[in-house]
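Figure 2 data, in text form.
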Amino acid sequence: MVVVQVFDSFVVEDADDGAGGVYGQQCLFLLEGGLRRILSGMKRWYPSLITVLLVLGMSAYLIVRWNYPINFADIWSRDNQAKNTQSDVGKTPDVKAVPKDILERRQKHHLRPLTELEDGTKIQNLPNGIYGFSMCSVVSLSATHDDTFPLEIHKHHDGIVYYIGYASDEHVGKYLALEKNFHILMSTHSSERTPTLFEIPVEFVSKCESHPSKDGYLFDLFIVAIPELQT
């Protein structure tokens, strides 16, 4: 005789006769019933458990959002800036606003800016078809347009190097008339005194002097004579 306790109920099983099978079935039935009651009780707790988890999740999100606000516009801006920086690797164009007429002059002659490797290179060692910035001497070119290198220089595809700037119509007229022994006051900015954009080969200028002005720099170009270009 074996005594079995199942969920506070006692079942007597006689191992020596055929009644043991009946008692075994009763134990299994009682066991299944107990499990169903446990599972039914757990199901009643599911909604409450899910609600608690959702509340905890929302609370954690609000705490993080409050203490560490995310500026998606700033992230987008930084991402675009990083992409633009990567696309400009190898080039160092001037960052100041460029007048439209100068941009058109660059495009007309198919000129490109200096690369980082070319920055500071002597003018004779630079390839044709580029533009950069320098002072009167034009010993070398810089890729950056600033107060140290305010004068724009173009090196055309034929190898001729030009000063680029603005002057008065009167001074530009003297240049176009091929006069001798005259001065051209050239500015890096357009103004009432210097409204006209023009270019002149560096080799035409006998002397160049720079003078600070309220608009940047004023360059005094002295031309002895305009040599005849070979065609």
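Caption note: DSSP finds four helices and ten strands in the chain.
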